[in-house]
Every structure is written in C-alpha cells, then in structure tokens.
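2024-03-11 09:14:02 INFO queue: dequeued item Heat-inducible transcription repressor HrcA, len=354
2024-03-11 09:14:02 INFO validating residues
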Amino acid sequence: MSEANNILQDLNDRSREVFRTVVESYLESGDPVGSRTLTRSLSEKVSAATVRNVMQDLEYLGLLDSPHVSAGRVPTQMGLRMFVDGLLEVGDLNANDRQKIDATLGKKAGDVGGMLDRVGAALSGVTQGASLVLTPKHEAEIRHIEFVSLAHDRALVVLVFSDGHVENRLFKPPPGQTPSSMREAANFLNALIEGRTLSEVQREIQKEISARRQEIDSLAHAMIESGLAVWEDEGSDQARLIVRGRANLLAETGAAEELERIRTLFDDLERKRDIAEFLELTEDGDGVRIFIGSENKLFSLSGSSLVVSPYMNADRKIIGAVGVIGPTRLNYGRIVPIVDYTAQLVGKLLSDRS
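2024-03-11 09:14:37 INFO prediction written
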C-alpha cells in the first residue's frame, strides 16, 4: 500500500489525470479504456500518441494492464488500491439510498436476527451487489443448559438465557455418550453458569476441567469438550453470517471462469468457514475498510472487492459487521457511504434495544 502511495506522489499532473480517467471510466463501464477515448476526456488537449506513451508508462509501473493485444487498458489490483487510497472521492449518502435503508431498518418489530436479515436485503437491493452481515453473539447471562440425545450420532444442546432467549443447537456428540453422562455434563455446567455469559462459562470450564479432571467421568468430560466446540465454532446462531443477493453477483459475471470463481466464493461462505476471519477484517477500529481482490484470504478466490464496516454496541465494542461484495469495479464512492451509514444505524438500533 505504501509502495502505491509513493508511486502516486511521483506521478506528474498529466499521468495522474490519465490514470484517474482510466480508472473512473473502467469503474463505470467495466470496459478497457483506449487512448482515443481518453483524449476526449482530458482537460489538456494532447494527441492520442502522447496519451499512449503515458499509458505505457503507467503499465510499466504496474498500475494499468492490457487485457488483450492492441486493446485499451484496465487498472491492476495495485492501481485500484492506489486509486482508492489516494484519488477516490467519496460522496455523501444519496437521499434515495438513505430512504430505502431507513425504511427497511425502521421496522422495529421482530428479533435481532430478523432485523439483520432485513439489513442484508436492504444492502443488496440498494447496492445491487451481494451483502454480508455478521450477526452479534448472544451474550446475555445463561440461566440453564440441557443436553438431549436424539440419536447415537446427534444431540441437542438447549440454552436458556436470562433475558428469555432460547437457542437449540444440533451437534455430533463424541462416541459412547449415555443419558447419564449427558446429565452429568449438564449438571456440571449448570453449577457454573449463574450470572455468566457463554464466553465467561467457556473460560471457567477450561479452568474447572484442569482443576477437577480426575473427578469428572471421562465420557462426561468428552461431552463438555464437544459442547464447547459447538459453541465456539459451529453454533449457527452464535455468529451467523447472512449472505443476500447472490444473484446480483452472478448476473454481473459473463465468462464461465469468472462464474466458477464466484460460485467458489459462495460455497465458502455457505460453509461459514471464514466467519471469524470476516470479523477480524474489521477489528482495527471503526470506519469503512476496502479490500480489493487478493488483499484478504476470505475473497481472494473470487477476484472481488469487499467494502466492510463494523458495528458497535452501546459500550463501543465491536459486535458484528456489515459489508458489500462485488466485482473489483465497484462504485466505491457510492458504496462506502452506504456501508458506513448502515453500520452506524445497526449499532444504534441494537444499542437502543438493549
């Protein structure tokens, strides 16, 4: 990123204008930009040959690329990064976009999950991209835990929270579990949970297991370990990634190879393999962040860009994130204020609810 900024500082005014015009035209149309087109757009009247020379220099610097022989230029990933960091002009939130988001989030009825699902639908609809919403973990104190055996390879953990919220989560228990070992595991947990959240219980259990390892039946101990794994990694409601607008991305894609890369992205998302990584993208502080192409592991396969912002609770703690993913030629100047406004609005609504 610093290398790109240094290159930007070294460009003269003509090169900078040519570069800016190429990128803005590409973001608008998605097509390579030729020298003849550029000569009609530049403030300074220069020949097409002069513009071609400037474009060749920008290509040598790694900012532009020629997708086909004798065709126009498109920005590289480094070029887009430099444009976003140094030349992007972020506009104010469009009044029409604001109205659509407000209308969707203004419906206060229903649970938090339903509200955040509507957030995803609103972001997808307004931006015509795919939206990502990472919902917050439920961090109320727990009142009761119970394990229920459904089959030899399936069990249910029932979590009752002090605010009345109830969650049922399916998981695969370790081999050899019996109703007795499940009751023992539940009794052990219920003795620890009073006045504690799931995260606090998890830390306490780790200490208790170390201190009382010999006292706990080996099968019950395995049961507890399995339960912890469910809460940490597989609980569908604890950290849920909502993906809306898949069709928007697929509609944007023409080539079979690009279509397959987009499908790969969504297969990854549907497996929720990278939920924690998605949240980590935002944890350097509040505000919108932009990731282009391979700049983050989550979306490197898709050749896409992600515009993401965390949202916070009343204590200014990051509890989730919202974002928009689309082709690298996203209209960043428009998308950034939409994502920023939505994240702030979600944080306020969740704070008001609590």
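2024-03-11 09:14:37 INFO annotate: Strands lie at 64-65, 74-75, 130-134, 142-151, 154-161, 166-171, 241-244, 289-292, 304-312, 318-327.
2024-03-11 09:14:38 INFO item closed
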